[in-house]
């Protein structure tokens, strides 16, 4: 979808003014930020149990909160220890194909 823009005040020929368009904004996908309170437990759950891989890790200093990017099969999540990031108890809906296969994989791990 394209949207015509006003070219008033811009030096353009009449033909350029008539055909000037801008592409509408588009979005790829959202990346949820989830709060974590215990790095060890978060890694155990998201990496070991759910099978995510670490994309990146960031701390401003060694003793400051961790901001962690993880992914699995095209799904990206960010996990944060920062006080103001995310909200405990938030919900995220993730459409999933072949969910039965994922269910069987997770049951086989006998988490908890």
Describe this structure in a few short sentences.
The chain is α+β, with helices and mostly antiparallel strands.
Task: Break the fold down into its secondary structure elements and pairings.
Blueprint: E1 2-4, H1 14-19, E2 21-23, E3 33-35, H2 39-49, E4 53-58, E5 67-72, E6 75-80, H3 99-109
Parallel strand pairs: 3-6
Antiparallel strand pairs: 1-2, 4-5, 5-6
Write up what this structure looks like.
The protein is an alpha+beta fold and 112 residues long. The chain has one domain: 2,3-Dihydroxybiphenyl 1,2-Dioxygenase, domain 1. It is 25% helix and 24% strand. It has 3 helices and 6 strands. The chain has helices at 14-19, 39-49, 99-109; strands spanning 2-4, 21-23, 33-35, 53-58, 67-72, 75-80. The strands form 2 sheets. Strands 3-6-5-4 form a 4-stranded mixed β-sheet, covered by helices on one side. A hairpin with an 8-residue loop joins β4 and β5 (67-72). The longest helix has 11 residues, at 39-49. It starts with a strand and ends with a helix. 5% of the residues are buried.
Report the average pLDDT across residues: 88
Cα-to-Cα separation, first versus last residue? 49 Å
What strand order characterises the main sheet? 3-6-5-4
Q: Would you identify the regions where 5 or more consecutive residues have pLDDT less than 50?
A: none
CATH fourth-tier homologous superfamily: 2,3-Dihydroxybiphenyl 1,2-Dioxygenase, domain 1
The arrangement of helices and strands along the chain is EHEEHEEEH
């Amino acid at each position: 979808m394209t949207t015509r823009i006003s070219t008033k005040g811009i030096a353009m020929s009449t033909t350029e003014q008539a055909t000037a368009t801008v592409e509408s904004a588009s979005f790829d996908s959202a990346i949820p930020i989830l709060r974590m309170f215990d790095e060890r437990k978060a890694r155990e759950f998201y990496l070991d149990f759910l099978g995510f891989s670490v994309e990146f890790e960031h701390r401003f200093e060694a003793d400051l909160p961790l901001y962690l990017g993880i992914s699995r099969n095209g799904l990206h999540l960010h996990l944060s220890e920062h006080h103001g990031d995310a909200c405990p108890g938030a919900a995220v809906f993730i459409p999933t194909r072949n969910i039965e296969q994922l269910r069987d994989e997770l049951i086989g791990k006998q988490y908890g």
